[in-house]
User: What shape does this take?
Amino acid sequence: MPSSPAAFFQAPDAALTGTTCAAIITGAGKVTAATGNIVDAQACVLQARLGLASYASAVALYNQDLAAVSSNLGVVPRSGDQTINLPKLDWQINAKHHASFLFNRLRWDSPGGVQTQATNTYGVDGFGNDFVKLDYGLARLDSVLTSTITNEVRYQYGRELNDETAQPTSAYDAQFVNGTSYQGEPPSISLQSTNGFTSGVPYYSFRPAYPDERKWQAADTVNWVRGQHNFKFGGDIVHNYDIVNSLSLAAQTPNGGYTYQYLGNFFADLAKPSGSCGSGATEYNVGALPCYSTYGQNFGQAAFDIATTDYGFFFQDNWKLTPKLVVDLGIRYDYQSVPGPYQALIQPTSTYTPLPQFSQKPSDKNNIGPRVGFAYDAFGKGTTVVRGGFGMFYGRMLNATLLGAYSSTGSPLAQIGVTFRNNQGGPSFPSILAPTFTPTALAAPNVQYFDKNFQNPQALEYDLTVQQQFGPSTVLSVSYLASLGRELPNFINTNLINTPAANNNAANGKGYTTVNYTVAGTGNCGPLACGSTYATKVYNGYANPAFQAVTDITSNINSSYNALVFELANKTNKYASFDLSYTWSHALDDNQNESTQASTNQLLDPNAPLSSQYGDSAFNVPNRFIGYATLQYPKRFSGLASTVLDGWNLNPIVQLQNGLPYSLVTSGYGSGAAILAGWDGAGAPAASSYIPEVGRNSFTLRRTEVFDARLEKQFQLHDKYTLQLFGECFNIFNHENYTSANTTGYNFGSTTLANSATTYTGPQTYTTALQYNTSFGSTTNANSNYVYSPRQVQVAAKLVF
Assistant: This one.
């Protein structure tokens, strides 16, 4: 379904009121949401672009095409079939040695199941098929070496294959398959990117191995009790070998991807693929160019592999210093060994010169993590206890990030993704480019490399808890928790020219220009005042024209999380136990990401001080309450009465919290010369973009409420057999928990030049209209992720013997 159905399905008025098509096309009387039906402007321009006889003819064509594209929306049949086999063998070899063996076999087959949300902004053939094949085995040997020393040895080997394919093509999208199509599939088509949906076949439909992962792990842990000390030490080695077979590693998709900012532009390309738009394909220009905003496509090699080995060694001492005080001291060392770049992809050719940075390999060898903790029984009675701790922890470089960087060097042998604006020589809709396409200066590849100082992500965690027992079974705890993220990954486009163009005129070169954004309309103009103007630096060129984005994968993001937690628990009552907790917290960061692969640019302005990005985190949830209870009816009867009345358990749980924050973003290009979308033309992704004057993560979704319950009844069938029946209900009241909102606050309109002569190189002024999107903040999805779902009921039976 569209992200904002009301805006997407809005039809043009049958007749214009208070303006004319001529006024709209010149821009002098452009329709806005505040003064009229904004879709009228699209009908007017459709008339001019296609040379239709009248406005009424354009309205008829618009409505006809809107009805046709709407046929590609609706209910998508989805299913998920999962089979798990889990045999386990325990073997008591002798009094000192015990071995166990486990094998897990999982198969998951889900037609239409790549997208798992209840609703999503894709056409009926765009949800993708998902198949998972997982097998792993675990062997473990526990040994008592002496009366004070025990040892545990573990080894496991596993393989996981994730395979994602395209669904059958819908009748609507089948018309876009032609002789140029990739694997006989239509291109991906983003329709009215602000409020619409994506038609066609998306990027994840071409992943026969994403990944095919083989992993083994060997570990040994020794436990030694000596006096008041309990020592534990050991190490483990984890080897990961990943094969990826997907032509979707680069920034685009192999079957081509078209983006249309307005439906009217798409309808113009349907009627006249050779082109009827002006440069930039803004809402109301006319010309001889295609009408898409951007076109992107991936080329090159699809299959890559990589092997990494993680080493970890630790030592820990649990020391009972006094009868009241126990201290934990520990230290851990982690090292991740990664291979260097693919040598074949960083060799120069007659048409390709690699950057020196492509040969850099991350290697972080200083990951030493001390840990300390204590527990102090203040009065020696176990009723008042103070606990605290501190630890340094290290994450790992993701294999997906390594693969993405090593395969994105721009070499003819690598995998490349290129992007065209409508004036840069891209194909005509719905054709795509040949697999033999060679990048050009106007459509150069995006490339990535690891910074020479890249470090593994680090977390510093510490806490302090005071625990007080009241009565025989009630405990109140007050805790302070903190986590400081350090050296988190960041993606910075280093190829943007950060010097001004002479005379603020893009005709004088590729330096940045200052563009005046003026908020158009009257009445409701959103958080920016109607008529207000914002002078903004907009990037216009690349320093190295052989590439578009040159992304430095670095590690300079910091984050902080501080929380105060109150918990009241009673877990020993015969009939009921409960646990109630409230958390107040604040999370801040430098605009961190949660990506497994590098984006071309993470920051709003990659050349601005990192401190300018600091603010509330996208994970900031200030208030959270969780409560759960176990209500049980113990055995009190005998005979038939016991069968019916005994053995009941009820487990209710409630979770309440603030909604997640989000930022207001823009759609489109800030000027005709801007090289990338976004407020300053740097191309920050929607998840990290924002308008500085509005602020980052300044809006929040509505609070979430979840009430779940589980009812259990046990039947004692025999001394050795117990039958357990379960009934579980999730989101009992079917509360709408908002999981996403329309974040596009403003659309960029056409840019007006003070002097529009093509040969003019003198002082220039650029003015671009900002059109408020009245659908901003509207809910686009609810109960639609792994945490929140619509009401679900499930029943189960378990036989224990």
Notes: The first helix runs from residue 5 to 8. Residues 312 and 334 are 5 Å apart (CA to CA). The helical segments are 5-8, 21-26, 38-50, 55-70, 171-174, 263-271, 399-406, 639-645. The chain is about 10% helix and 45% strand.
